From TrEMBL:
Organism: Paenibacillus silvestris
GO biological process per UniProt: methylation
A matching Pfam family: CheR
GO molecular function: S-adenosylmethionine-dependent methyltransferase activity
Protein name (database record): Chemotaxis protein CheR
């Protein structure tokens, strides 16, 4: 019981000091993940771990990293990205060259750079507003640095590796052509207001970690952020079972279109 109170107090303190509401994440997964980190760092209680996090920025970033599960790759689930490249982006560009695209919970940047590759290949990158956001400043720093191990590139088409990356020993560096147009910024999806008028929102492999209530709120917010006819692209375990309640309809597997066009 004391252990439960300790974790509840930790949740309360984190929310008060950071606006991150851990109660909106699935508790068993979150508690297990954070307990492992706390014990690894040598803290006997969550409250003592929290106090240490407030004094040690590196520990706080490690907490965020563990909480947000920064597992990302370029072209993750390649057949879905091929659909973005061959069908959805060309359809959008026929109607409007000045697209507004958002990579939400972008982690360490592989997803927005994948979008940038697709747009660059179609000669549209310089015309597009491309936003990438995440709650974790440590992940955003890595995204801005744009240097990756080869394992992150395993699904990137070979012609794009050659064209858009520079290899330096073990690291692959993303070209300036892809880096410069992307606007990276910090954002808490569950708390912050969203911009509107997006043609495409990509939010993949993140929503699965939230409670059903939090998912419902997020899908509502994403739907409002899309322009009529705009697309929401979700992860392979994140099907929306009743999209109509959010004014969305299936466009393909893991793609949902906002009604109104």
């Amino acid at each position: 019981m004391e252990e439960d109170q300790d974790f509840l107090l930790f949740i309360k303190k984190v929310k008060e000091h950071t606006s991150i509401d851990l109660a909106l994440y699935k508790e068993a997964q979150m508690k297990r993940r954070l307990t492992t980190l706390r014990m690894k760092r040598g803290y006997h209680t969550f409250v003592s771990f929290f106090d240490a996090m407030m004094k040690n920025k590196e520990l706080f970033y490690e907490f965020l990293d563990r909480m947000t599960i920064n597992v990302s790759e370029f072209w993750r689930n390649p057949n879905r990205w091929e659909l973005v490249e061959s069908r959805f982006i060309p359809e959008m560009l026929k109607k409007n060259r000045r697209l507004k695209i958002w990579s939400a919970a972008c982690s360490t940047g592989e997803e927005p750079y994948t979008l940038a590759m697709i747009l660059a290949e179609q000669g549209a990158l310089s015309d597009v507003h491309l936003l990438a956001t995440d709650i974790d400043e440590g992940a955003l720093d890595k995204a801005r640095k744009a240097a990756y191990l080869d394992r992150s590139l395993r699904d990137v088409p070979e012609k794009y590796v050659t064209k858009y990356f520079r290899q330096d020993q073990l690291m692959y560096h993303v070209s300036d052509e892809l880096r410069k147009p992307i606007k990276f910024q910090k954002q808490n999806l569950l708390v912050d207001t969203f911009d509107t008028g997006f043609d495409l929102i990509v939010c993949r492999n993140v929503i699965i970690y939230f409670t059903e209530e939090a998912k419902h709120v997020l899908y509502q917010k994403f739907a409002k952020a899309l322009k009529p006819g705009g697309l929401l692209f979700v992860g392979s375990t994140e099907q929306i079972f009743s999209p109509g309640q959010y004014d969305l309809e299936p466009a393909d597997t893991f793609f949902y279109r906002k009604k109104g066009v």
